[in-house]
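ok so i was messing around last nite and threw this chain in just to see what happens. nothing serious, just curious
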Amino acid sequence: MAINRGIMRAATIFIGGLTMMLGAACLQQAPPDLVQLVEDVDRQLIAARSAEYAPEEYTRFVRQWVALRERLRADDDVVGWPWEDNPFQTDLQALHEEGMRVLALATKRQDDTRRDATTRIARLERKLHRFTNRVDELSSRLTLGERSVETDLLLKQARSFLDQGHVAQAVRTSQQADERMTSQMAKLNVELSRYADAQQVSRWRTQVQRTVEWSKQHRAAAIAVVKADRQLILYKNGRAAASYPVRLGYNGMQEKRYQDDGATPEGVYVVTRKRDRGQTDFYRAFLLDYPNAEDQRRFHQARRAGAIPAKARIGGNIEIHGEATRRLQETLGCVMLGNRDMDALFRDVEAGTPVTIVGAVDLRNAVAVVLAQLDKADDDAEDEARNLDETQAVADNEMAKQS
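result:
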């Protein structure tokens, strides 16, 4: 009996030791460190917006990861021997490598998209700046209504999205801004196409020539105002005796259609009254016979066609006048001169002096040039815009000296 108990004790010790040895030698099927690596790359893929920048590749990764996790859960209690192949280890390593490739692809595409968006928004900002300057030169901001403000706000919003890392939203918003700007350019082209119309420019030139002929025949003063050049020319005896820079209404390049539209009228008028100091709010002034019969015909025609507001009035009290204050830089549709120029003109002009106001007398006028610029490629437009800015700055300085 004593021998049997010894054998039993020895067997128990052997089996226990063998069990401990086997337990120490067996491995889990899913190495925790590999599982952790795949979970980490999954989180990085989410952070890199892989679903947005590499949707097909990311979807394929997710499907593989979901399937592998199902297998891991199903085989959670299974252990293997160290000398056996571990399919989970192989699959996890392969999935990790796949995840890293998708991450690299998503990151590259995001960087490319961000770089393209940055270039696109910067180009649109330059384009809007140039466009706004051109619109101001044309005194046509009112023509565009609130759309010019909308474009500016959309572009600022796109820049904000980009700075916050919301590249896709930045791209979408910048596209909206671009569409608004394109629409505005088309509107300007329609509204101001008269300045690039050879027949219309020829008619304007004829009107000015008739005014010059009148001056020659009557050996008297006559005035021509060319809106595109922002110039008032005084003729005496059929010769140009002086020219003065002028400011127009805040929508001055437009043809005046009704009261408060900010446009300066076009047509053949006469001075009906001289207003000296104390008789006008604008230093000195010449009152014109606007609206004349032709203005009234156009007004009523436009109202019947629904081209102007139904309650619009034709207005009046259009003058050639001086400056009220230094702060007042625009008129409501009149023609404004510097006060020194107004003094000089006041000596030569009397009631009855003809005044012809036209858009342009040269087909290559400032408005037509600006309109052509709007359709040019960025680089060309920027070069020409820079030249025009310098020219305009010289003209503004000259006018400031004379005022």
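not much to say yet. Residues 14-26 have pLDDT under 50 and may be disordered.
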